[in-house]
Design a protein that fits this description.
Blueprint lengths: L1 H18 L14 H21 L8 E12 L3 H8 L12 E12 L2 E15 L2 E14 L4 E8 L3 E13 L2 E13 L3 H25 L3
Antiparallel strand pairs: 1-7, 2-3, 3-4, 4-5, 5-6, 6-7
Helix pairs in contact: 1-2
Amino acid sequence: MKHLLRLLAAQTLSALLLLTFVAAPARADTIETDAQLAAEWQLAWDFYKFYEIGTAPLPYTGRSRVERDISIDIDAPRDHVFAVYSNFANHIGRHSFLQRVVTHKDWTESGVHYINFTAIEDIPVVAGVPVTTKTHGQQRIHPDGYYYETDTWTLPNVVTHQKIVFYDLGDGRTRVTEHLAFEASILLIDFTVTNGVSSHQETQQGLKEAIESGEL
């Protein structure tokens, strides 16, 4: 157990060092180039997989897991809603925190569409003052099953698991149900859940309005 904790500490330190590396500005919203973000993504993904196997989000680890389900009905056919909703580019301007999405790798394997990405977000932390964060994730789109999954990792070791399912209600209507699971330290879990759920609800409403109006 002590050996595992030492390994985790070393991995955490390495992640913090790389994820806080200062480089020449590339865009107004982040100081890293897209290539540097891709390198950060790989380190974050490796650490995420290592940590998920080595520990569980239980109280004795100082972490907690909270699950929430949220749904919205949209007056549009399922095929169209699925295509629009699963494209994260359409979330920009409708997700309250999201500023841009950098795609690192995009491929299809065994009928599943994989996308490795980093989302640049401005999250209000203290007194509503936004702090720019980088959320590294992977999206897996299952077109045959009308659902997609997303796993993300953000400093300081905040993990989310998402499964978004699209149901055909008939008469050209679709229900979108998001199954959300948040993992964070016991000190951050309430903040993570509150902000995570509210941002997803805002995105749901924004996409619903854009789809039903014909904007998307």
